[in-house]
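== Folding task for one protein ==

=== Format: two labelled lines per protein ===

==== Paired sequence and structure tokens ====
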Amino acid sequence: MTKSDQITIEFINNPDANVNKLAKKYKTAPSYVYKMRARAIAQLVRLPTKPEEEEVLDALIANSQENGGWQVTAETGALNVQVGGEHYKKHKIQPIEFIHANNIPFIEGKIIKYIVRWRDKNGIKDLEKVKHYVDLLIDLEKL
């Protein structure tokens, strides 16, 4: 197994793992570890849905079966279903719509997501996430 695979697995098992500690452990630069962290995130994004998201899928499937096929309407479309609050749905354009329409890369998309919701969800914690993602982006762009 390569060093990059080992570091990626570390982040998959513990997404909050300390970059500097892993850099020391694997005798590599923190910037390389950040790159492997991005790789792990990309792999995690492809994992099965969370249990609370299964409820949304079940509702969409039930709607589909009642209407003789997939009938996504303004009321049943995924943009009108939000698990865990209303902090995105209340906007005229949801962050995901903007991010998708403009082909914005992952990290920039996360920055947009957190900056849009910070007042309505986690306050200063979301601003700290914005700051962290900006720092990650700067480090990755320096590679």
